[in-house]
Amino acid sequence: xVHLVESGGGLVQAGGSLRLSCAASGSIASINAMGWYRQAPxxxxxxxxxxxSGSSTNYAASVKGRFTISRGNAKNTVDxxxxxxxxxxxxVYYCAALGALAFGTRRDYWGQGTQVTVSS
Length: 120
Hints:
The protein is an all-beta fold. It has no helices and 11 strands. Strands 2, 4, 5, 6, 9, 10 and 11 form a 7-stranded mixed β-sheet that branches. A 4-stranded antiparallel β-sheet has the order 1-3-8-7, with no helix packed on it. The protein starts with a strand and ends with a strand. It has strands spanning 2-7, 10-13, 18-26, 28-39, 46-52, 57-59, 67-71, 77-82, 91-102, 105-110, 114-119. The mean pLDDT is 96.
């Protein structure tokens, strides 16, 4: 079994900051990339930021310059520092382990999601 657990969501005022953390556990041999996606009510899930195993990053245009994705201190962990938050950042944020090799199979794994609410 592979599990992803997110933490750090919550309620914050516009202009504030939050830090999300994600840890992937289980018999993982390697992960191509870890990232964060979000889904707002009535909208499709969208990419927020991705960090590859080679340390390249990709950000949604809407968060570039405000959010920073980085590796956590432990193996297979990733953080998302979110600054200058806006009400439109309100969504459920999902951590993803993309192309994770476990039990001889490479596939994507997803966390349960953590709610981020930004009040105006």
